[in-house]
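re the bet — no i am not wrong, look at it urself. input seq straight from the record:
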Amino acid sequence: MVERLIPPNDVQVVLSRHAAFLAGRPGGVRLQQPGGQYARLRLDGAMLDDAILSRADFGDSSMAGAQMRRADLFCADFQNADLTRVVLDRADLRGANLCRTVLRHASLNQVDLRPGQVMIAETNESKQVNANLDGAKLDGADLKNAQLDQASMAVSSAKGASFANASLFAVNLAGADLAGANLTGARMKDANLVGANLAGAQMKGCDLRGANLRNVDLSVVNIEGVSLQGAVYRTGEALPPEIEDILKLHSLWIATGGAEGSRADLSGRNLDGCSFASCDLRAAELHEASLKGADFSNAQLMFTSFLKAELQEAVFDLADAGGSNFSGANLTKSRWRGSRVFGVDIYNALNQRTGKMVFPRFDGADLTGADLRGAGLEGIDFTGVTLTGANLSGADLRNCTGLRRG
């Protein structure tokens, strides 16, 4: 538990003078302290309307019930702070860090959380800094008409929050909990909602054009009147509840780089005929699973392992199966039209290319009668792969070896 300190005398003085300024009392002085240090302090109920505190550090502070209307908080740091019931209406929070900040029942009407442009002294150039609300607690918060373009809100909790008429262009809400949230009229074009929980959300007039809705169960939300042109979302029947729960945890695992949730392990399960169309199953394990007639069209299957799985008549149209493993799998009469089964670059911990690649594997797989028309197949060793009757018309077979038909 963070130990919050009583503000030192100099901080109490400037807060008192600012409160007098707001009230119009003699001796009042507007608080203008860019880069001010307020970390780990107890500032509950502080009156900071119209204060200028760009780049200020409020990390780990307690500011429950504080008033910060119209405050200049450009690129301020509130990481791990408690802002329960804070009022930030029309505040400038461009590029702010609100990672894991508690904002339950906060008021953020018309707040500006768009990217901020920060100057780099060494190069005299600017860089874009996106607002960070990853893991923030926004349950019951009021964000009507807020500007959240390109903000990162991965694995945040915003149950019952209102984003009515807010701008959320290209926002990252992967793994977020938006159960019961009000998204009426929200502009969410190109948003990332992989694995988000939208159960009971109000979405009338919501613009989700081009959004990524992989692993989102849309059967628990009314999408009538929602714009979904160009969006990627599931259209097949809902999966069994147990599998839906596994997908949610897998989405959380992806969104947090493995820090939370768990990798989907569906090995040995009977999932014949199930629809995983447009799902995100990157790096999932389906070893020896029975997936006859299953639909993986347009799915994300990078590094997914189907070792010795039964995939007769399974559909992989338009799927991205880069670096996946189908060794020993039964893929007779499976369909791969327009799929991308390429090599994948390996990156190091600094997100830099290592120059190494992982290519898909089909060692000992059976592709008898498979439809591979127009598929992209790269760097695959087909030695020992059964391709009797397979249709490879128009397939891209760059750097493939061991090909034989018959």
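see?? The chain has three domains: 1-125, 133-253, 265-406. told u. also The beta strands are 116-120, 125-129, 340-341, 344-347, 353-358, 376-377. so pay up
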